[in-house]
């Protein structure tokens, strides 16, 4: 694999230089490929993803097959299975689930990571970093990833899966108190405008990002700020009929109705709907968590009144 990286990088460098293109000109505004990423590819330090190969071949004016055999880009099915599980696997802070998720990361790093295209490596690093911040509440773990990719994110109009995962990482750092929520809000608003319903994985991560920023305002007890995110989440659930996030959404809606609308009866119904939803999934960990939140909020409301 290392030889393939060097051969590919050398071929791209020669083709670029034959066109008399500097790296700066080649990368244009860096929204598709940064100068640093191109340098790593040409030095044989990283393997480009298929999307970056398409950009490189288009900029060079040659088919991808001139640069490399597309069959070489195929990813192992076991890796794709592990990646899917990591993106969709929710721990809710449960120790057993967190240990299982950690084992999934370990398998990827041991068996696959070194031979993955750079874009896939970023996917895994972004997920693991967010998981580490969640489990340790130490936000500095995310700084190196943000340093390299955040500026590129700010100039993009449409977000890829990795862009969405970097936004998720930034949101987790906000939850840990290390980043400005106003910047996160601007990113999420842009994410909402460019939402892609055609990609189930991207839509899932978008949904999780909306839940995460709503969780920030929920955690900070700024309940009035929940409304736009809960409305968008309701739209997504209705459109996709994917109810996995429904318990968390109903919990936050109940809290909003309780403390903003001052409607105890409606809030109580929403709390119970959230619990019933977790029961239908057979998720006892989430059921216990939501029941505890309901009890805490109802007690606080009674003390206020």
Describe what you observe in this structure:
- The termini are far apart.
- The protein is elongated and about 75 Å long.
- The protein has 305 residues and is an all-alpha fold.
- The protein is built from 16 helices and no strands.
Compose a concise summary of this entry.
The protein is mainly alpha-helical and 305 residues long. It is 72% helix and 0% strand.
Topology:
Layout: H1 2-18, H2 23-27, H3 35-42, H4 50-60, H5 64-67, H6 77-88, H7 95-111, H8 118-136, H9 143-154, H10 161-175, H11 181-193, H12 200-219, H13 227-240, H14 246-259, H15 264-281, H16 284-304
- Kindly, what is the distance between the CA atoms of the first and last residues, rounded to a whole number of angstroms? 67 Å
Q: Level of helix content?
A: over 70%
Category by helix and strand content: mainly alpha
- Arithmetic mean of pLDDT: 89
Strand tally is 0
The number of distinct helices, counting runs of at least 4 residues, comes to 16
User: What percentage of the residues does DSSP assign to strands (E)?
Assistant: under 5%
Gyration radius (Cα, Å) is 22 Å
- How does the major sheet shape up? none
Order of helices and strands: HHHHHHHHHHHHHHHH
Any idea what the shape is?
elongated
Low-pLDDT parts are none
What attributes does this structure have?
mainly alpha; 16 helices; elongated; 305 residues
């Amino acid at each position: 694999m290392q030889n393939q990286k060097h051969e590919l990088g050398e071929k791209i460098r020669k083709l670029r230089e034959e066109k008399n293109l500097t790296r700066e000109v080649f990368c244009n505004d860096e929204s598709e490929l940064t100068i640093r990423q191109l340098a790593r590819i040409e030095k044989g330090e990283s393997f480009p993803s298929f999307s970056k190969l398409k950009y490189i071949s288009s900029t060079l004016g040659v088919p991808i097959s001139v640069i490399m055999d597309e069959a070489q880009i195929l990813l192992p099915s076991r890796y794709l299975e592990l990646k899917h599980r990591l993106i969709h696997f929710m721990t809710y802070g449960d120790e057993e689930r967190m240990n299982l998720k950690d084992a999934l990361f370990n398998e990827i790093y041991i068996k696959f990571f070194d031979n993955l295209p750079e874009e896939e490596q970023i996917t895994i690093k972004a997920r693991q970093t967010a998981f580490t911040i969640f489990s340790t509440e130490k936000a500095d773990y995310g700084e190196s990833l943000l340093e390299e990719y955040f500026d590129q994110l700010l100039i993009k109009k449409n977000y890829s899966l990795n862009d969405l995962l970097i936004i998720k990482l930034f949101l987790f750092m906000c939850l840990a108190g290390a980043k400005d929520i106003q910047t996160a809000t601007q990113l999420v608003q842009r994410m909402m405008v460019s939402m892609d319903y055609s990609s189930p994985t991207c839509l899932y991560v978008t949904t999780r990002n909306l839940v995460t920023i709503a969780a920030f305002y929920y955690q900070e007890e700024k309940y009035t700020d929940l409304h736009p995110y809960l409305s968008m989440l309701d739209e997504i659930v209705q459109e996709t009929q994917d109810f996995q996030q429904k318990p968390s959404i109903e919990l936050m809606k109940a809290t909003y109705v309780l403390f903003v609308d001052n409607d105890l009866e409606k809030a109580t119904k929403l709390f119970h709907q959230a619990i019933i939803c977790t029961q239908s999934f057979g998720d006892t960990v989430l059921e216990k968590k939501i029941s505890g939140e309901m009890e805490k909020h109802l007690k606080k409301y009674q003390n206020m009144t």
